[in-house]
Amino acid sequence: MRRDSGHVSHLLEINLAMLFISTSGALGRYVDLPVPITIGIRALLAFALLWIYCRWKGLSFYIEIKDRLHIFLTGVLMGLHWIFYFYSLRLSNVAIGMLSLFTYPILTSFLEPLILKVKLQRVHLLLGLLVLFGIYFLVPDFDLENDYSIAVLLGMLSAFFYALRNILLKTKVNNYNGSVLMTYQAAIIGILLLPALYRADFELVLGQWKGLAALALLTTAIGHTLFLRSFQHFSITTASIISSIQPVYGILIGALFLSEIPSWTTIFGGILILGSVIIESVRSYKK
Q1: Helix 122-136 and helix 264-286, axial crossing angle in degrees, nearest 10
Q2: Least CB-packed of 25, 76, 184, 231 within 10 Å?
Q3: Mean pLDDT, each 10-residue run in order, the chain (287 residues)
Q4: 248-259: b or e for each residue (b if 16 or more CB lie within 10 Å)?
Q5: At what angle do helices 178-192 and 65-91 cross, to 10 degrees?
Q6: Are 20 and 219 in contact (CB under 8 A)?
């Protein structure tokens, strides 16, 4: 019974993480600032919130010398993921931006065995293809002449950086607290984007404070920290496939707050994606 409740709580935790992270789609469309400025302020605000939380909890910020370059690299990858993802959102809508990003479970299925030397599981490839099949129903006709097609490519590039960051962090989540790791990543992104912030219009930024604060608190500080914690209980590929429910949450939030109502093909694609989540959840429990 204890194992049952433990596994269920881990699944609930990762789904809660996905709900918070999925707000990035609507918020990325809502905040009307240049992307580097949006990401820079988001990162610095998230850093402040996470730093206060870690100090309150008495968590150690010490990182061993051998791990410092590794953590820095994951911060850079996370920043690239955020930047390309937000450009994708600006060129399309919540559905296209989020679902092009969710090619990352497929990329993870290929990258994890190469980097972490784990056995490639055929079922992950099949579930990844199911996710891709679901995305097929949400992406318009591919044509490099339109913004939507460029948005898909940027979303897939964001997916590559995200998959790589998750895999590299998998080797460190058992050594360091997830909130501490996310604090360092937010700091790295914020510092690297400081030059862009010098060009920011202060009054314009102040007018967007609600969206920026929500991005920092809900999406980053809470959502990404919970997602990092899930790496302790699931493989990166399993966590990636379960997290494929995120676009479903994101599209619902976009419909509710931005009136971006999905078509029937979007709903069908979402059902396919949700199906892969349920299959992997059950499979990981039995394993």
Answers
A1: 170
A2: 76
A3: 66 88 90 93 93 93 93 96 94 83 79 77 79 72 71 90 88 84 94 90 88 91 84 76 82 86 77 77 66
A4: bbbbbbbbeeee
A5: 70
A6: yes
